Amino acid sequence: MKKLILTLTAVIFVNFSFSQCEYTLKNFTYDWDGGELTASYCGELNDRSQRNGQGKLTYSNPEYFIESESGTWKNNKLNGKGIVINRNGDSFEGIYVDGKLTKGVFFRNSNSIIWKYEGGFNGSNFQGEGNSYRETSQNIIIQEGFFISDKFANGLETNTSKIDGVIIKSNYIDGISTITERNDINTYKRNDIIGDFKSTEINLIQRGSAVDARLAYDLELEIDGIKGEFLFDTGAMGFTIGMIMFDRLKEGNINYQELNREVRSLGVGGSAVSDLIVIQEIKIGDYVVKNVVASVSKSHNYSILGTGFLLKFSDVIWKMRENKLVLFK
């Protein structure tokens, strides 16, 4: 809401019928940047004929951005509970001091945007502690923390995509954001690991040997009761399910969520295209791991377990000589 200095040039006082205005109707004419501004006030007045008490001021000029101001007045300014409604439908409701909003609620529902802010204000600007909820056709952004001149300065922001369900959480410090969590990559969450032991030891299945330069390891996972072997690849970031294995999992009614996102990766064998999903539960050793992000290959049958899966754990130790992998809760 831009600031505007209004100069009173004329006042016309008339009595109005009770059916239309139970108080007194008073018309005002102001000078402003856009020319002559007219407004009518229905409400209580003081002995100096100033807006004082309960009342509503309505602006007549359609090009003026404010439509009305109503609430408790003192000496021509909103003081106490009040609401200002802009011509575009935006509203500012709350506690006013000398015509400036100090604490309250901003609301917008227009042009496919739903936006609600509740907290501190400096006039029409978000200022101080507050919560903002903004929804568009693409995403929902929630900000909780401290605002300075409409900008989010300190606190937590959660950005949820309505297209692919990806949730990104960021921490703001002095207006600078740092991503702390997102659901399209695997991160450590203690509550996602179900098991009674501090660690579990996994037997690696050795393929080939160092002598013939074909040394590799597989390990077994169980997804919704269906077992499968994955190539253990510490040089790979992702956790990939091959086409044949995923067909078996779908036949077994795997419980998963599609993120509606296609990812491309580049490796020694060339590029690969995959679809991103979140598997509800995977059993490995003595643990059941929840909410595991995986990519489903659309071009090959290799199932690979890389560091992207191991990030679900607090720590990992690879005992190469013993063909074992130790996962920590």
Number of helices: 2
> What's the pLDDT, averaged over the residues?
89
Helix-strand pattern: EEEEEEEEEEEEEEEEEEEEHEEEEHEE
Distance between the termini: 52 Å
Number of domains: 2
Question: C-alpha Rg, in Å?
Answer: 31 Å
- The general outline is elongated
- Within the largest sheet, what's the order of strands? 1-2-3-4-5-6-7-8-9-10-11-12-13-14
Describe the largest sheet: 14 strands, antiparallel
Total number of beta strands:
26
The percentage of residues in β strands lies in over 45%
Q: State the helical fraction.
A: under 10%
Low-confidence stretches: 1-19
- Helix/strand class: mainly beta
Characterize the structure shown:
The chain has 329 residues and is mainly beta. It has 2 domains: 7-182, no CATH class; 190-328, Acid Proteases (Cathepsin D, subunit A, domain 1, Beta Barrel), CATH 2.40.70.10. It is 4% helix and 63% strand. The protein is built from 2 helices and 26 strands. The protein has helices spanning 243-251, 307-310; strands at 7-14, 24-32, 35-45, 51-59, 66-74, 77-86, 91-97, 100-110, 113-122, 125-135, 139-148, 151-161, 167-173, 176-182, 193-194, 199-203, 205-207, 216-223, 226-232, 239-241, 256-267, 270-284, 287-297, 304-305, 315-319, 324-328. The strands form 3 sheets. A 14-stranded antiparallel sheet has the order 1-2-3-4-5-6-7-8-9-10-11-12-13-14, with no helix packed on it. The longest helix is centred in the last third of the chain and has 9 residues, at 243-251. The radius of gyration is 31 Å and the shape is elongated. 21% of the residues are buried.
